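Practice problem: predict the structure.
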Amino acid sequence: MSDRDPHVPIEPTAGPHPTTLWPGLADPDHSRWYVDRFRAMADQGEDILGESRLVDALAPRAARLLDAGCGPGRHGGHLSRLGHQVVGVDIDPELVAAAREDHPGATWLVGDLTGLDLAAQGHPEPFDGALLAGNVMDFVAAEHRAAALRSVTAHLHPGGFLVVGCRVTRGFTPEELDTAAGGTDLALEQRFATWDLRPWHAGADFCVSVLRRAVPGS
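Answer:
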């Protein structure tokens, strides 16, 4: 059993892969601890599905959804149980293996968001919506974050939505998201302070942004 405190935020850490700051790639024990952490939280009845409930509210029924930076799959797994067609992608093979074990109803792939090409992995169909949950973008190296946003956006239908969560006081901030989105055809539709849609305000310490890909000619 790991002695890591589950309430202490995980710090982005440079490692062997230039595009990611996820510590699990250098330390598989960290990834196994992360998997066990969320399994334990689920067993204890904690609410760990706020992100996927929001995505479900935005999506049409039986939507095709991309869980980008899926981790051990709690969000994509929930969405697949709600009847959506889910593809989850994460750079960490340990987390993807856990997602496949715990949530077999979805498709789970190992991949780097900064150069994501799902067609090359046998999944060419575009998505109705995508989720970058929690602090996924914090763990993308800063110089590669715009590329990650572009590559995820490129997998959306015109008119498809993207939901991004980020910390305000550290990591990938709303201002950085807005700057990165300027290099895409995404437009910001809504911004909230929490996953349960409390109003955005300047003193918030977390940000949930809903963006939508432009429809040509509209």
